[in-house]
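dumping this here before i forget
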Amino acid sequence: MKIKLLIRNSLILVAILLNIGCDQVTKNIARNKIDYYETISVVDNFLTLTKVENRGAFLSLGSTMPALVKILILNILPLSVLLWGLYLLMKKSTMSTLLITGICFVIGGGAGNLYDRFRFGSVTDFLHLNFGLFQTGIFNMADVSIMTGAGMILMDIYLKKIVLSS
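structure:
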């Protein structure tokens, strides 16, 4: 039983580290190969690369907050939540695989962006999607991990409700 738990927790850590690694590799490439506000079309006008530094949170929210408030809300609070999530993953062995995977993606993406804030004082964003009628803000792979993980968590909740109602 201890071996099974060790393997489970090791796989969780690997999933989180892979999310962080993919995020950091892509950001490093963007930092070194793309000039600020340069626009590189990858797929026609649908996917473009544009490097910006985000000093706030999602879509630069909070970038103008006072320094102390910004440190609390953008650094300390997220770090606390990520550590709490990691603790839950390691201690609760009754979670579904979908929920575990979703939480790993959220933690990995959050840790990738948090690492940037601690190291650089901002988060490097570089991806932009244009769907014609609407377009995204500029984001990064950590944001993709967070959104993918959130989708998995919501899917897990939805699937549990279906099972409970039948």
